[in-house]
Every structure is written in C-alpha cells, then in structure tokens.
Amino acid sequence: MDRNIHLATAREALGTHPVKNGGHGKAVCAAATHPTVKRFLKPSEKRSGHYVLNTEAIRFEEQLAGTRMLRTTLTDMAGWELFEGYQLLQEVERNHREYKGPLKLRPCYHRSADRIRAHVMLTVLAGNCVRRMEMLTGETSNTLRKIFDRVQAHRIRQGGKIKWMLGAVPDEARDILERFGIDSLPHLWTIWREVPRRDKPGPGKALQQIGAS
Question: Do residues 50 and 44 make contact, with C-beta atoms less than 8 angstroms apart?
Fold first, then answer.
C-alpha cells in the first residue's frame, strides 16, 4: 500500500511542469530528496538536471510485494515461530505506545501508593476497552480516534439555558456506532460533565491538592 502511494507521488512529481531555466521544479526536488520516494527516481542520462523513474527499483519492489523478511541470529527456531514472536513483539510495543501516549499512564501526579496503583489499574482497564473496541469494529485505535475526532458538540443558549447540540456525525462514525448496538446519539442535552472554569482550582491551589494526595 505504501509502495503504491510513494510511486504515485514520484509519478505526480515528474508530471509537473519544469522551471524556466530547464531544470526540475520544487515538487521533483522534494520527491528526489524524500527518504522513501527517492528510490523510485534516478537522474536522467539524456537531460542534465532532470529525473526519470527508476524502472529497476520499481520492478524490484513489485517482486517483494506481499513478502516480509526478518533478519535474526536465532537460527535454531522455525520460521513460523520467529514470525509469531515478531508479531507479538510489535503488539507489546504498540501497547506501550498506547499506554504512554493517549491513555496518559505518565506523567503520574499522585504520591500515595494507593492512588498510584489506582491510576495504573484505570489505565490498564482503559487499554482493555480499547482492544475490545478494536475487536468489535475491526479498526485500529488510531483510526477510531481520527473518525470520532470529527464529531463535535456546540454550545448554544436556548430559552436562557445553556445547552449542547451535536454536530454532524460522519457516516463512518455511524457505521461504527451501529456495530456497538448504538442506533443514534442525542441531538440536544443540557448536562455537560466538564468542570466550569470558575470552579477549577488555580495553580497554587492545584499544587496544594496534589501535595495533599
């Protein structure tokens, strides 16, 4: 998939108009210096300062399409064992990135042992929920975030009361909600869980609360 995208980028860059002095333009220069796209290009032998497609590199990539190669020193293990071990290693690393990134395992602002254990336990539970969502939807957590980041709520005032109104929901988000058994989201509601700004503690008070915990 990435190979096709990079090759399309190289073709598109070569299709741009050359500059007035006969050299290549910015698009070709960016493609020729790109760490991945540049392997599909090579300097032209007929026209100085121009680039053409590297047909040998393209043919080599096509031969490797659908093939995964692993380099290892564990020669006493079977190929399928190495492959499964490598897949498990990738899964473990992905879990670590999930915990340290979106799930906010760190930094931990608690000091007491009970609070720290509770923080870690909640993070692990959230990670299990993420994996369950991936199993039910067949999508990765990054894809789910990109889809639902587009779902927004707008604050409005109606009849002297502050209410929240749901914005447009993409079709992809509706499909995923249906997989969870959720037919529709509420269009209008009055309760918002976010703490009002005036009730939020200031920096000094927040430090006191953190120190007390």
Answer: yes
pLDDT digits (tens, 9 = 90+) for 65-91: 777 778 888 888 888 888 888 888 888
Which CA distances in Å does 200 have to 45, 71, 197, 203?
67, 54, 5, 9
CB 31 within 8 A of CB 37: yes
163, 116: one domain: no
- pTM tops 0.70, yes or no: no
Domain with 10 in it? 2-64
From CA 178, how far away is CA 207, in angstroms rounded? 43
Tokens in use for 34? 């790109």
For residues 122 and 179, state if they share a domain.
no
Radius of gyration (Cα) for the chain, nearest Å?
26
CB < 8 Å & 24+ apart, contacts of 174-180: 176/137, 176/139, 176/144, 176/147, 176/148, 179/136, 179/137, 180/136, 180/137
Give the pLDDT confidence of 90-142 residue by residue, as tens digits: 888 888 888 888 888 888 888 999 999 999 999 999 999 988 888 888 888 88
Domains identified in the chain, total number: 3
- Identify whether 18 is part of a domain: yes
Same domain, yes or no: 87 and 133: yes
